[in-house]
Amino acid sequence: MLLNVDQSNPELESISSLQITTKVNNNKMASKKIRTAQIRLMSSHQEVYEPCDDSFALVDALLADCSNLLKHCPALCMEIGCGSGYVITSLALMLGQEGLGVNYIATDINPHAVSVTRETLNAHGVDAELIITDIASGLEKRLAGLVDVIVVNPPYVPTPEDEVGADGITASWAGGENGRCVIDRILPVADHLLSEKGWLYMVTLTANNPSEICLQMREKGYASRIVIQRSTEEESLHIIKFWRDSDIEVFKNEKVMTEKSVPARLMDYVLTQFPLFSFWRSSDSDNKLIQRNPVHTDLDAKDLLRIQFHPVSHSLQSVRYENFDLWGTLGIMSFCYKCS
Amino acid sequence: MRLLTHNMLSSNIKGVTNGFPLRIEAEKVVEKTVEMNPDFLKKMFDKIQWKAFVDGSRAMGFTELPEEVDSSVLESDEFLSRFHHALLELHLEEGALVCPETGRRFPVNKGIPNMLLHEDEV
Ligand SMILES: C[S@@+](CC[C@H](N)C(=O)[O-])C[C@H]1O[C@@H](n2cnc3c(N)ncnc32)[C@H](O)[C@@H]1O
User: Fold this and answer.
1) What sequence ranges are listed for the domain Methyltransferase small (chain A) (predicted)?
2) In the structure, what pLDDT confidence band is assigned to residue A296 with cuts at 50, 70 and 90?
């Protein structure tokens, strides 16, 4: 059973000094202090986005997921829109370099940003391949399916369309309608470049409608979760992680029953079968959840309930429930129950 | 820019069908020593388009790669160290990448290729 309820982690502030024990290189257990880029070593330029709350939130999300990333053993990592280089430098410090078999590529449409990233990397003694290009233009053909980790802090601020991709620093925040203009171009490219085991980490703003982004990625076979959610005075940020989920692929090919077509009797049966449903029903501690999400009576359009039956015996095989409507309070809530 | 990256780059001009490999014009090449990781090299060996790689390394002044290879070469330490050197230690610092179909030059300055297109190329 899988239940993802991620909330921003109050302990994160202390994570940068976290000690993690990892298997390094020749299987020796080593205790390693995790480092990220340091502001005093950052280069800057008036036309380049300086590390901000969104940059810090993304790096904190990578830190929060650091032990998974180390186990993931990525060979190629990539950042789209590297700006000052704060994120790609932090990632390189966290995961190591060539000797550990990790290589990095970063792109930006702003030539000044790429130069600043070069200086920031140098100042930290790490390296990445840098390319001035629009998203990943020029790489799509040969890099397809090879990238194990992609990180993106895109221009996400809702603006007039004509500011999108403008020269200099405007391109760092201008996101067009709902701030989705560049994001919607990045997602299919990321899907194309990611390897089978690939992960994408992306910053989004509430105005970008992150739940819809997740549903859209779901159609492409990706599961998602919020790694960090953070509200600042001006904005509420979500750092979302996407990965290919074989369950989703499977479900795509199965007969899928959604919400209202589920007969009440069947739902009752399902409810008696699964402890989690009863947890949900009886959880008085979160009335909001119960009100917004009365599982067995009227699932609303944002709930997806997928029930899978055995093709021959018609016995119940699995139930998957996802709700994309609880953003802002709980993150995506989803679980999958496979009957053995 | 490393030859690893060169091997992953194609001309992105609209309408170009054979945009790979970009021809390297080298004005300045630098070498930076990095630690070798045989597993990474073995993983990349399958992904590299060998002819483009050999031609690229020649253009950068390194001529010690075999023209023809099959996976048995991976057994040889000598091969691995040459492969490592050409793939990760040679950097095109100044020069250009030339589209094989149109001849358009993408400049490389301070090791950074600029693949941005003019308005009439997108
Ligand atoms: C919000 S800033 C993030 C910068 C840096 N990654 C950070 O987190 O601090 C977005 C960056 O994306 C770049 N960008 C905008 N549109 C782009 C595009 N179409 N292709 C590549 N980069 C782009 C901008 O130039 C800017 O550096």
Assistant:
1) 77-157
2) very low
Q: Tell how far CA A107 is from the center of its chain.
A: 19
What CATH number does the domain containing A183 carry? 3.40.50.150
The protein residue with its alpha carbon nearest to ligand 1, atom 2, reads A172
Boundary (domain end) residue, out of A245, A278, A297 = A245
Helices (H) and strands (E) in chain B, counts: 4, 4
Contact B43 A101 (CB under 8 A): yes
| Within-domain flag for A306 | yes
Q: How does DSSP classify residue A157?
A: B
For residue A74, how many other CB atoms are within 10 A of its CB? 22
Instruction: Tell me how far apart the alpha carbons of residues B94 and A118 are, in angstroms, rounded to a whole number.
Output: 15
Check: CB of residue A129 under 8 Å from CB of residue A102. no
Give me A34's structure tokens: 């995790």
Residue A129 belongs to what domain range? 34-245
- B40 to A118: CB separation less than 8 angstroms, yes or no: no
Q: Does ligand 1 have an atom closer than 6 angstroms to the CB of A191? A: no
Digit-coded pLDDT (tens) for B12-51: 999 999 999 999 999 999 999 999 999 999 999 999 999 9
Tokens 């690229």 map to which residue?
Answer: B56
Q: Are residues A230 and A99 in the same domain?
A: yes
**What is the value of pTM for the model shown?**
0.80
Report how far apart the first and last C-alpha atoms of chain A are (Å, whole number): 11
The domains of chain B, with CATH numbers, are 3-111 (2.20.25.10)
Examine the pLDDT at A4 and tell me if it is beyond 70.
Answer: no
